[in-house]
Amino acid sequence: MMYQALTIAGSDSGGGAGIQADLKTFGLCGVFGTSVITAITAQNTKGVFDIHQIPPKTITSQLHAVVDDFSIKACKIGMLGDVASIQAVYDFLVQHKASVGKLIIDPVMIAKGGANLLQENAVTALIKLLPLADVITPNIPEAQVLTGLSISDDDSLQLAIDKLHQMGIKGVIIKGGHRDDEWCRDWVSVGGSRFFVEQRRILQSGTHGTGCSFSACLTAQLAKGVPMMDAIKDAKAFITHAIANPIKVGGGINPVNHWAGADAIKARKHLL
């Protein structure tokens, strides 16, 4: 059986993040990837220089084309960009959620270089979409925007998780990459369990595409039927090794190394 997954996200012309990173991750994890493009960015390792939103009608057409022909077991949503795109995806999922399997939402707001990837007036629409997910994977700045809380330590992070659950969101992973601690700690609250996964912080420049690749690995593992808790640990191992062995391309922030990430999954016996 060929496992199949879907990514709904923006295109990164530099290949390090977005749709391109998702499809690389899917393939290296042994999953056939399909895609719905929500935006086209002019982007490289140095920054984002232009964004073109795909018309909502075309987003909806792509969604129907994928689910009408493929057996999607898990779906990841990344960059949506504006209210119209979010509404198009929301309307589709309300009618066809079962056709995309497990749903992971990475609430992309800001690119690694600082460019805004979500219009300010779109946050409310995004919050309406999030309860449809099985799990969401915000970083700390994104969690702060979604909850309105300041997150500075584990206690405030726990309050943010509580508030996200109160908003109707079932599963939460808040990634700790933006903190200054020696250990990079991601807090997980899924299925009534709350715990953290952590690795010693890696002082590397290869961090372009971290959020996309982490959530894409989680999606791929869930598409293969890996249990949620194991899939989360797989995704942590994937991104840790991908950051530790950056790809030396471009003159800006190096992309993560998806091949090294896949080797980590293979070592955990969950590649295929």
TrEMBL record:
Source taxonomy: Bacteria, Pseudomonadati, Pseudomonadota, Gammaproteobacteria, Moraxellales
Protein name (Swiss-Prot/TrEMBL): hydroxymethylpyrimidine kinase
EC number: 2.7.1.49
Cross-referenced NCBIfam families: HMP-P_kinase
Matching InterPro entries: HMP/HMP-P_kinase_dom, PM/HMP-P_kinase-1, Ribokinase-like
Alphabetized PANTHER family for the sequence: HYDROXYMETHYLPYRIMIDINE_PHOSPHOMETHYLPYRIMIDINE KINASE THI20-RELATED, PHOSPHOMETHYLPYRIMIDINE KINASE
Example of a GO MF term: hydroxymethylpyrimidine kinase activity
Species of the source: Moraxella nasicaprae
The entry's keywords: Kinase, Transferase
Pathway: Cofactor biosynthesis; thiamine diphosphate biosynthesis
Keyword Kinase: yes
Domain Pyridoxamine kinase/Phosphomethylpyrimidine kinase: 12-257
Superkingdom as given in the UniProt entry: Bacteria
